[in-house]
Amino acid sequence: MDDGRFVETNQQFRDRRGVVVRVTGYDRQERRVIFMRPGYEHECFVPKWYFQKYFTEFEGEG
Questions:
Q1: Cα 21 to Cα 8: distance, rounded to the nearest angstrom
Q2: Cβ count near 21 (within 10 Å)
Q3: CA-CA distance, 28 to 56, in Å (whole number)?
Q4: pLDDT tens across 43-56, in order?
Q5: Percent of the chain at pLDDT exceeding 90
Q6: Could you give the CA distance from residue 23 to residue 37 in angstroms, rounded to a whole number?
Q7: Whether pTM exceeds 0.85
Q8: CA-CA distance, 58 to 24, in Å (whole number)?
Q9: Distances in Å between the alpha carbon of 45 and those of 21, 31, 38, 61?
């Protein structure tokens, strides 16, 4: 059952260290952003407020 909790996406952002990550979704219930780091096989999660403060949209090849 799809309750609308997760929003899927495929966007690139740069973290505060300059690493480009691929955002795969957003968890509405927990208010956290889900993303993948290059070379790391597991999903990473951070609160939405943290993501908005420390990540910037990346346009280009990464």
A1: 15
A2: 22
A3: 20
A4: 999 999 999 999 99
A5: 87
A6: 9
A7: yes
A8: 14
A9: 12, 10, 14, 23
